[in-house]
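Curious: explain these tokens?
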Amino acid sequence: MLINPDVHMALGIDVTNKTSIESVIKSAFDKFQTPPCLIANAAGITRDNFLLQMDEQAFMDVLDVNVKGTFLVTQVATTALLEHDLTSGSIVNFSSIVGKTGNIGQCNYSASKAAVQALTKSSALELARVGVRVNCVLPGFTNTSMVETVPEKVKNKLLKLTPLNRLAQPEEIAEVVAFLLSEKSSFMTGACVEVTGGLAM
């Protein structure tokens, strides 16, 4: 697929650093003469270990990226919209089904993704008055590099718990994100949509 540089740009960003996020938003504005109004907020890292073996740094690293990063991107992007008198926007945050169920070896990741759901709902309540909708998706186990590190026997167990009996493909998650970003979901805000193949119904 050819990417037209006139309508696309790729930039590195550190979501834990407000200055880095502001720089990216400014670069987007300089190129397109408008701040981004559709944000897919997909910050997410793992540092898996059992609770009793997990060190404090591994716990905080995950919360720093997954929760603080989501908060900062939402704050900076919305501030940019308001500064330019734009009265509509849509943000989709990435949570995870383990933010609802918990998961062995992922107390930090599960806690962070539960926090993203609460952050989504609180943000939606506050930002509705300025025309910004905030929703989130809770993907199930998806065929990504993150899931590739899961041991095969654990994957097989998860598949047995998933009524559709397979992993999601990234495109299947992306379709739901695209819907939530679009005007087709114009009366949705504060929603946390599970895309899990039926896992944890």
User: Anything to note?
Assistant: The longest strand covers residues 132-139. The two ends are 37 Å apart (CA to CA).
